[in-house]
Amino acid sequence: MRAPTHIGAPTPRPSARFPRAGGARRGPLGWLRAGSLGLALTLVGALTTTACATGPNLSDEYGQTARENYELAVAEFGDKDWEEAIAYADFVRIRFPFSRYAVESELLIARAEFELKNYVTAQDSFRQFLRLHPTHKHVRNGWVAYMAAVGAYMAAPSSVPFLPPHYQRDQTLLREATLELEYFFDHHAGSELEPLARKLEAKVQRRLLEHELYVARFHLDSDRPEAAIMRLEAAHDTFPGIGLDAEVLFLLGITYLRIGEIELAREIFSELQMQHPEHHHGQQARLYLKYMTERYGPPDPNRPRPDRSPPVPETPPQAKPDEFKDWRWRKEQRRRQREGEPAEPEPPKQDTKATPEPPKSGKSGKSGKPGKKKAQPEKSQASEARDPEGRGSEAQAPEDPEAPESPDPEATEPQDPEAPEPPEPAAK
C-alpha cells in the first residue's frame, strides 16, 4: 500500500507573488501580538470591576426615600462600618436636603468621622452642626458642644515614641479646646455633661501648663530671666489648682533670686512653704529661706531693688557720605584690578561741614528801606586799565565770616570822594 504523498513532505509555503497582508511575515507569536490590544483592554476592565467591587455597591443598595437611606446609614454605623455609614448619610444629605433625616445624617457623619479618628474633621462638623441647627435636642443639652471640645483635645499632639514630647509641640488645638469648653460652660452650665467637661478642662489646662513650664525653662537656659518670670507669673495666675503649683512657685522663686530680687524671692518661697509643706519643693524652699537670712539678713521692705527696665538698644553707626563714596571707589578699584584695567586715582575727600553763607552787602532798616552802600576807595589808573569794568580782585574774594562786623553805614555819613573840597575862608 502506497503511503500518502503528504506524509513527510515539506509544508507548502505561499509564493512570493501573493504576500501576506501588511507585507510582513508573522512568527510563532504573531497572533498573540495581534490580539494584545484586546487582551489589555479586557484586563483593564476586569481590574476596574474588581476595584469597584471592594467598596459598597451603593447603586444597587440605595433606598427610594430619605428614611430608608438613613436607616441603612444607622445600620452600617451600628456594624462599625464607618465609611459606608458616611456614604449613605451623605447621600441623604445631598439628595434630600429639606428632609428631617438630612439633619440627622449630618450629625451621623460627624460621629462617624470621630470614630474614624479624623478628629479635626469631626470638630469642624460638630461646630458647623451647632451653628446651623441651634434648636436640635443634642445642641440644647450641650452634647454637640462637648463633642467639639473632645475632638479638639483628641486632635492635639500627644507623646509618641521617637517624637518630641507633647509639651514641646504646637498647642493651638489645645487652646481651641479651651475655647470650646468656655462656650460649653457659658451656655450649658448645670447640664449632665458638666462633670465630664470639668475633667476635660483639667486635662487641657495641665498640658498647657506643662508647655508654659517648658518655655520658661528654655528662657532660663537662654539667659533671659525676665521672659521666664513673665511666663511663670502668667501661668501661676491662669492655671491654679492643677497640681503643678509647687513647681511653678519654686521655679519663680529661683528666678527672682537669680536677678537679685531678694524680697520677692523671699515672699515666693514663704508662700511655697506655707501652701505645700509636705512637697519636696516646699522643703527646698525652707532651705532657701534659711540661706537668704544668713546671706542678706532679715526681711527689709526698704531694700533697694535692682533696675529691671529693659535695656535701650544702641543705635548703629551710620556711614557718612564720603565713607560711602570711598567704599564705592574701593569696590571699583577691586573690579579694575580683577579685569586688568588701570587703577583710577583716589578722589579727594570733601569737607562735610556746611560753608556759612556770606553776609549781605546791604542791610534793611526797621522801616524796610534798603541800606546805603559803603563808599568805595579811589582806584588808580593802572587798576582801571587792567580792569576796565571796575571789578578788581578784592570784589571777587568772599568776605571772611570770622571778620568783625562792619559798622552800620547809617551811623556815619562818609563823604563823597569825587565832591570838591570846600574853599578855605578868606583872611580878614
From TrEMBL:
InterPro entries: BamD (IPR017689), BamD-like (IPR039565), TPR-like_helical_dom_sf (IPR011990), TPR_rpt (IPR019734). Residues 1-22, 294-428 are annotated as: Disordered. Residues 65-266 form the Outer membrane lipoprotein BamD-like domain. Residues 320-330, 338-354 have a biased composition (Basic and acidic residues). The keyword Signal applies. Pfam families: YfiO. Residues 309-319 have a biased composition (Pro residues). SMART domains: TPR (SM00028). The keyword Membrane applies. SUPFAM superfamilies: TPR-like (SSF48452). Signal peptide: none annotated. TPR repeats lie at residues 246-279. Keywords: Cell outer membrane, Membrane, Signal, TPR repeat. Residues 397-421 have a biased composition (Acidic residues). NCBIfam families: OM_YfiO. This is Outer membrane biogenesis protein BamD. It comes from Enhygromyxa salina. The lineage of its organism: Bacteria, Pseudomonadati, Myxococcota, Polyangia, Nannocystales.
